[in-house]
Amino acid sequence: MNNKVVLVLVDGMVPESLKACGHGFVDKFLENSISNLNATTVMPSMTLPCHMSLFHSVTPQRHGVLTNTYTPQVRPINGLFDVLKSRGKNTASIYNWEQLRDLSCPGSLSYSHYISCYDYENTDNEVTDSAISYINEKDPDFVFIYLGNTDSTGHEHGWLSQEYFATVNNAWGCIEKICSAIPKEYTIIVTADHGGHDFMHGTELASDMTIPIIIKSPVPLQKSKKMEDANIIDIAPTIAKLMGVEPDGDWRGQSLIC
To answer: With the C-alpha atoms ordered 247, 251, 255, 258, is the resulting torsion angle positive or negative?
Structure first.
């Protein structure tokens, strides 16, 4: 395979919100996709540890980031951005939570754009517009798009609140806009870093640990048996497989596609 990939992560999006948010594009995106809407994340189920595990395909106990404060790795593992860079791929990261700047080593990204979360209510839309512009102008091989407003709203109003569902609805509006505005050659993966309950997350409760992973490609894909018990650490190997590059030898996840 030699696919181009866009990874959209909606922070704190629980699987049940896909239907409850009421956005009509959810069913359309799920159609002809491969997915596991009951995949698991890692513990602690917090934003930065989960992202580090997604991009480095190991648990937090291995990469060492156990809170939302970045800690340099004692035994460094190459992350997805670093592996793709070493294979000559052009990569980009567009996000609205500044701590995600540490997901890649210096020089591994072709483009990085942090949009301040001071006005979090509108930044998901700003991230989306920035990503669309960059993709259409530069035709990159891999783009990470982070939408953070869902998590912020969960902490303020509660997971499964009407305000929370409204932000999930808006996130799916962003996903629909991305799908309709960028070249059809891109495989698009939609996922979350963790779930949530009440006004928090970070525990081993199923509500915190369960995430959706959805892969929609312009070419038919066959899911592997690993999809049945998919974990967030399987996403980086899956993207490597889609893009035709070898995963790093230290990664512990497995590809979700054959």
So the answer is: positive
Task: State the helix-helix crossing angle for 120-138 and 149-157, rounded to 10 degrees.
Answer: 170
* Nearest-angstrom CA–CA distance, 38 and 21: 17
pTM of structure: 0.98
pLDDT in tens, 178-223: 999 999 999 999 999 999 999 999 999 999 999 999 999 999 999 9
- 166 CB-near residues (< 8 Å, 6+ apart): 21, 153
Max intra-chain CA distance, the chain? 46
Supply 152's token pair. Answer: 């912020």
Q: Could you give the C-alpha distances from 152 to 48, 109, 196, in angstroms and in order?
A: 14, 26, 11
